[in-house]
Amino acid sequence: MLWYKMWWESWIRFAISAVALLWMCGAVVLLQQQVRAHADEPLSYAHYIWSAVYKANVLDMYILLVIVLGLGGVLQERAQGTVGFTLSLPVSRWQLTYARATMGFVQVAILALLPALLIPLLSPFFGESFPFVRALQFSVLWAACGMVIFALTFFFSVVLPGAYSPAIASVAGLIVCSVLAKLPPFQGHSAFDLLETIHGAQLSTVHGETSLAAFAVPLPWLSLGLYTLVALCLVGAAGSITAQRDFS
Predict the structure, then answer these.
(1) How far is it, in rounded angstroms, from Cα 58 to Cα 26?
(2) Which residues form the domain of 13?
(3) What is the pLDDT of residues 102-137, one digit of tens each?
(4) Based on the structure, what is the number of domains in the chain?
(5) Degrees, nearest 5: CA angle 154-156-161
(6) Rounded distance, CA 247 to CA 10, Å?
(7) Fewest CB atoms within 10 A around its CB: which of 9, 30, 165, 202?
(8) Is the dihedral of CA 121, 125, 126, 131 positive or negative?
């Protein structure tokens, strides 16, 4: 019953997000010849995909979709008048919190995987290729960083009332983190810059065509492990607040 409720509450947002992400990736591949023909300098297909999907347009959409998936929760249900039903379920508030967070993490990971499935499959139809293993690397980055973004929005959804306040706070939080990461005490520590990590800044050889085609650059596992810990801590804090708050 609990997992069905979590899926039912989020499946429309998840389905729309998946379709939007697939459509955007498909458009990037479809328009690759026109965009590369008008580029200021010669642009390889691999570098084009990295720039359009993993660094800019599609990545920005992914971040926004993850924030949308993180919205909702018991506090928002109080405003909608459905909190009584949710709290009457034969489960604890901790179980409600972790079930919703787990469902969100799974959906975020699936969204992160979609470009790695579509782009290598679609590219040969246009006379190009993009290595699946390299695309999978970026999906791992997206999934780990996306979980932090989801958890941040999830936490703000527990703390802040209103339909849009958690989303605004999440965007502001990401901007603040990006600015702080540029300050001298944090420079040189890539783990502090989530936005740099998610578009593969640590994979510095991504700009080279030969290195992009090979699984030669290790992922920043230490940073990804730290992000996983941060995401779990945010969910734990959200669960603690939910367990103690009076929603009457």
Answers:
(1) 10
(2) 2-244
(3) 999 999 999 999 999 999 999 999 999 998 988 999
(4) 1
(5) 115
(6) 22
(7) 30
(8) positive
Tell me if 166 sits within 8 A of 70, measured CB to CB. yes
In single-letter form, the type of residue at position 9 comes to E
**Under 8 Å between Cβ of 66 and 93:** no
Give CA–CA dist 150/101, Å, rounded.
Answer: 9
Structure tokens at 174: 């990401």
pLDDT digits (tens, 9 = 90+) for 203-212: 544 444 444 5
Helix spans in the chain (H): 2-30, 32-37, 45-49, 57-70, 74-80, 83-87, 93-122, 132-159, 165-181, 194-198, 209-212, 221-244
| CA-based torsion, 83, 86, 92, 95: positive or negative | negative
